[in-house]
Amino acid sequence: xxxxxxxxxxxxxxxxxxxxxxxxxxxxxxxxxxxxxxxxxxxxxxxxxxxxxxxxxxxxxxxxxxxxxxxxxxxxxxxxxxxxxxxxxxxxxxxxxxxxxxxxxxxxxxxxxxxxxxxxxxxxxxxxxxxxxxxxxxxxxxxxxxxxxxxxxxxxxxxxxxxxxxxxxxxxxxxxxxxxxxxxxxxxxxxxxxxxxxxxxxxxxxxxxxxxxxxxxxxxxxxxxxxxxxxxxxxxxxxxxxxxxxxxxxxxxxxxxxxxxxxxxxxxxxxxxxxxxxxxxxxxxxxxxxxxxxxxxxxxxxxxxxxxxxxxxxxxxxxxxxxxxxxxxxxxxxxxxxxxxxxxxxxxxxxxxxxxxxxxxxxxxxxxxxxxxxxxx
Length: 377
Fold this sequence. Notes:
A three-stranded antiparallel beta sheet has the order 3-5-4. A two-stranded antiparallel ribbon has the order 1-2. The chain starts with 8 loop residues before the first strand and ends in a 5-residue tail after the last helix. The model has no long low-confidence stretch (mean pLDDT 92). It has two domains: 247 residues, Orthogonal Bundle (Fic-like fold), CATH 1.10.3290.10; 87 residues, Winged helix-like DNA-binding domain superfamily/Winged helix DNA-binding domain (Arc Repressor Mutant, subunit A), CATH 1.10.10.10. α1 packs parallel to α11 and α10 packs antiparallel against α11. A hairpin with a 2-residue loop joins β4 and β5. It is built from 15 helices and five strands. It is mainly α and 377 residues long.
């Protein structure tokens, strides 16, 4: 099917409202769109360059966790949470009570992402994997009463007090299983000569339109993008997360999705998505370059610590995964006395690596601020 001939679906009359029944997507796609082809080429090139960094940066897994934390914070903010990455990294006791639900949602996103990436070693990208991930995402947070890990068996809607005055009403729950089955087949249909970036662009639109869960669809749909990149070997490591771009361009993001449903303009959505991938991949490459520059600088500076240099390197490796630390944590991490841990922290302060931040109980919390800033919008 040519993208310009695509009919996104139809509105079906229900009791006092209409729901949108989307067209299946598991079929061939074609287009004559020079701008789409240009963006596809540029985005593919940018992903390749980003992927190269995951292959050449030593101990790249040390830095993956901060990418996941940034994605969790940005994706959750799209849904209305108020937790920045610096707060997401903080212990729960330092979060004000009115923000702890938001904080927990971000923590759940991190757990869900890490679990799903690990599961890809044994479970293919599938509805089963998405259901398992959804259960982790909503465990013990807002929405936890809404069929965790299961596709919905009632009507949901986007905005408004009900389906009769909602901005968008997804398909009736009786259609969800067949639509999600079609989408899963689309992911793995190797007979289709469709570039993988176009496939995931269509897939994200289709997932958000089906809205298969009662809650958490936005976060699962954005998490799906990274899972697809990794499962289809577009990325060796989960280093690309588009939620930062989508959060900054939230209105355009929602408008582009609705434009497909209302005007059948799938090409506009694909171009928007490819732009998001292109800019995010370029930003990710720049972040890795900055990480390498900072890493070389700080690790060179710790050589001046003499016999403590080896312990310093171990502490730095910890800080690359979580740039917040206390003296008791350093003592436990390095298996040294509290006095030795405090002395090493003072060394890091003098070298400009750590600085005082907040109090955690009676312990001082220190932050690797220059590193943390590389992940803050």
